[in-house]
Please model this.
Amino acid sequence: MNYSIIDFLTLLGALGLFLFGMKLMSEALQKVAGSKLRNILSAMTSNRVKGVLTGVLITAIIQSSSATTVMVVSFVNAGLLSLTQSVGVIMGANVGTTVTAWLISIIGFKIKISALAFPLIGIGFPLIFSKNKKLSSWGEVIFGFSILFIGLDSLKSSVPDIHNSPEIFSFLAHYTNMGFGSVLIFLAIGTILTVVIQSSSATIALTLVMCNNGWLPFELAAAMVLGENIGTTITANIAALVANASAKRAARAHLIFNVLGVIWVLSIFPFFLNLIDSVSIMVSGNSPFKINSAIPIALSLFHTIFNITNVLLLIGFTNLIVKIVTKLVPVKKEDEEFRLQHISMGMLSTSELSTLQAKNEIASYANHTKKMFGFVKKLFDEKNEKNFNKLYEKSIKYEDISDNIEVEIASYLTKISEDVLSTSASVRISSMLKIVSDIESIADSCYNLTKACKRKFEQKPPFIKCSVDNIHNMFGLIDEALETMIFNLEHDYHLVSLKKANDVEKRINKYRTELKQEHLNNIKTKKYTYQSGVIYNDLFLECEKLGDYVINVSEALNEIKE
Model:
């Protein structure tokens, strides 16, 4: 056997080129689709069937089930999708990823695509430098597509031919004649390869090339494909490591769904392979058990029929899967993350009634920001480094969630405003948009206070007692202002009273002025260090700014009342 280390590195290089092309094309397609992907996910997941179709569509578009599932996990983490909705999309992503196998089987092996790859690069490469972002993204799509198939062509030529290297077959023979044990071994190989490469599409491409070159018989290649279905779930589970409980549950649901599919198909493996053989003979006229060149098409059939059948069998058990993952990833009630509770981006009811849904969602959003301020108070007093860092990370995550929720509520309100509305409804929506913006600004202020608390925690010496007491007093006033704001949001708008809200706002402003004057005197007398003074000053000024956003909410509510 004349196969050197250079040949092996060439094989790795070809695989790397394929992966790079896949990554570039996938990311560019996501750029081209832009916010439409989010809108599709939000609007088309109102039931499990729509969720599955959404998963198929998005994965077929962006050519990466991993990208889809990671996106789904991030949306669940941000509260934009429920766990039940996410399971449907993940099921669909498994079907959508079969498009890659078909592209490779039909175009990669039947057509000399590499001959067109360089002319395509000639078209796509100049577009990448276009000032038009969409045109530039399309250039990346064409360029990535070309690189992908150049990589595939290199893979085909880098994998040694079985006829010229019989030693490889004798090596594989040790593992191919163990009956069902061989199936399990190659299933494990498929899983491990996908975990290592982090792309089921790349592993499937490698499997198809090995089959085409006579390395693997059809049944063991099918076992590798099953392993790839398990290995691809690892990406989403890795993404969920730093996410909240619901996102972890979504990732676990992906794993359970794929593992259950592998279990049932293994229980009828010989029968299922015979079924695929029959379909393959009908489609191509060749049996994958007899002709190596027939394996790529048969393997694509196996991949597609398996995933579609798995969805049809398990879609009715979505709620059961949700219950299982909820038990597998328990969470204390107080640790549950905020998510959209009252609105969805699907079909709306009448616009007049939709404003009521938005009102309830805005009240929930306000409670979310009040919880963020609760983190600030705890951070200010926390002395333990481990506890501080844990609470700090949670607070930062809440700010990211807040940004996403603002976009979703604002998008919902904008969609309502596109319909014919009464004058009062138009005023309500306009005021609600102001309120949502101000609540997000409250969250931004909480974020700034969180950063200031971190600087306080890290600096030495610590705050003097009078500074700590003054900030506690200011926090108390902000708490009172937030409670008044939330009361006004949760009750009928006609009951809104600005009197109490204005009273708290005046007291916050007055106290800010007193602290500012006292602070200047303390700096002159060197009562505390300049560094402590800067942080102290930032804290009470940011609190006053937060109070301004709070009163803005009540004033906007008063506009609705009038």
